[in-house]
Every structure is written in structure tokens, then in C-alpha cells.
Amino acid sequence: MVRKFLLYLLFFGLFFVYSCTQGKYSATNKVYKKQIKAYSKLLLEYPVKDSAGLPYAADWVGTTNLSMRRANYVIIHHTAQNSCEQTLKTFTLPRTQVSAHYVICKDGTVYHMLNDLLRAHHAGVSKWGNTTDLNSSSIGIELDNNGFEPFAEAQMNSLITLLGRLKEAYNIPTSNFIGHGDIAPTRKIDPNWRFPWKTLAEKGFGYWYDDPANVELPANFNYLQALRIVGFDMKDTTAAIKGFKRHWLQDTTKGLNTEQLKVLYQLSKKYQ
Questions:
Q1: Contact assessment for residue 139 and residue 165, using Cβ atoms and an 8 Å cutoff
Q2: Is the bond preceding 191 in cis, omega lying within 30 degrees of 0?
Q3: pTM above the 0.90 mark?
Q4: Rounded distance between C-alpha atoms, residue 162 and residue 3, angstroms
């Protein structure tokens, strides 16, 4: 009887813990499901005639050739907060108007907060190459990191596994794994200079450079054009240089020396 009682106690204890864990965000999960349901109803409707005054045909004809929009970029962020719990709360408060598809905690736990095919609010005002609405063409991944600490091994392992799945699922080009500080260098630095971009590049997520010692810099090398080729917005050249150095050189100083120009020259060739 004692053994049976203990088993019951253990069962109900685990059930209680599970219920609390699942129920903590039950209210916001309901809001999520309600919004998805509303969008689903909208998709089921045939295109509604607007008030533009166009001579619409009397009969609606829907095409049979369509698919869901898929991401072409992955944008990596650090949360700039002190815990996963804090970030989850931020992303479940309507007034913040910010979100991401994934949040990865220091221990490697992954929260998939939004369907990959839906638009998250993570990139903000940004530009990469000719793309100006990164929210509509990217998947946002937030790493639990306050911006002043190394990235945990378990966290990086989960990130690399996730990136592999996303790259294969959506055929995302190697060049299109970038950081928030790359697409918005005037206002963002994440995932900051401590992030191991070289490790990611070795796995096929982003480009890296070869030994610059063996590179001969052309006499007519235009470093501003090279930054543009890589993808940076050149409205603020100082910010673009800082963004390049932060990502590929883990350097937060100003200016470009000869060795750094060689690195940029190599990268511009890979991004052409």
C-alpha cells in the first residue's frame, strides 16, 4: 500500500509540474491560436473586391498554382535580456510588438514561438542587399544572451542543428545567414562581436575568408563597393564598416587597415 501510495504521489506530482509548465502561457497561447484562426478564415475567402474602382470580372477564378511564402534569410539576434523567461514574457506582451520565430536558451532549450511561414516582428527597419523588408523574407532566431557574455556550448549546438534544418527545408543560400547588426548596423550590434560566426561558416551557414597573408590587394580596390557587394546598406558608411568588422573580425575599433581590407576583398569575391 505504501508503495502504491508513493507511486500515486509521484504521478500526481509530475502531473502538477507538467500542468504548471504547460499552463504558464496558456492565456497567450489562446491569443496565438485565435489570431491563427482569423488568418485561416481570411485565406479561405476568395480575393475580396476592393474599392479601387477596377472593372473586376463577374466570376472569380482562383489559380491552382500556389504555395506558402518561404523564408530566404535567417537573422540571428541576441536577446539583450537576462533570461529566457524574460524574453518569453517580452514576446507574449502585445504592447511590445516584437517577436521571433525561435528563442534558444543557454541550456539549449528551443522555443518555437511562431510558424516558420508566418511573419515575425524581429528585424525592424533594415536592409541587406536590395532587400528592405527583412521581416517578410526571413526567420528570426533569438539567443538568450545579454550582449556581454560568451554564447553557451549547448545553445550553439541547438542553433547549429536548427540552422541545418532550416537551410534544408527552405533551401536558404549559404550567404543568407546573417545577424541583426548586419542588416541594421546604425542601431543594432547583435549578436555582438563574441558570436562565433566562423564556426557557423564552417558548417555552411554564412561565408568566411581565407588567410589574408596570401592575398594581393588590387591597387584600385574600392572598399565601399566591396561592402555593398557583401550586402551592407551604404547610407552610413561608418556603420557599415563597424558592422563588417564586428561580424568577420570580432573587432569593435574604427577604421580599416591593410590586412582588414584584404579580408573584405576576399569576402566581396565570395558574395558576388
A1: no
A2: yes
A3: no
A4: 43
Residue 23 lies in a domain: no
Sequence letter at residue 89: K
254/171 same-domain check: no
How far, in Å, CA of 139 to CA of 166, rounded? Answer: 9
The residues that are catalytic are 142
Q: Which residues of 135-173 are buried (b: 16+ CB within 10 A; e: fewer)?
A: bebbbbbbbbbeeeeebbeebbebbeebbeebbeebebe
* Tens digits of residue pLDDT in 71-91: 999 999 999 999 999 999 999
138 bridge partner residues? 73
Q: Residue 51: which pLDDT band, with cuts at 50, 70 and 90?
A: low
pLDDT tops 60 at residue 116: yes
**What is the enclosing helix (H) or strand (E) of 88?**
helix 84-90
Q: Which domain holds residue 217?
A: 209-272
Over 60: is that where the pLDDT of 18 sits? no
Could you tell me if 199 and 235 lie in one domain? no
Task: Answer yes or no: do 134 and 158 share one domain.
Answer: yes
**Neighbouring C-alpha atoms within 13 Å toward the C-beta of 183:** 28
Say yes or no to pLDDT of 12 above 80. Answer: no
Per-residue pLDDT tens digits for 157-169: 999 999 999 999 9
Beta strands, E only, 37-176: 73-78, 102-104, 110-112, 138-143
Of the three residues 207, 228, 252, the one that is the final residue of a domain is: 207
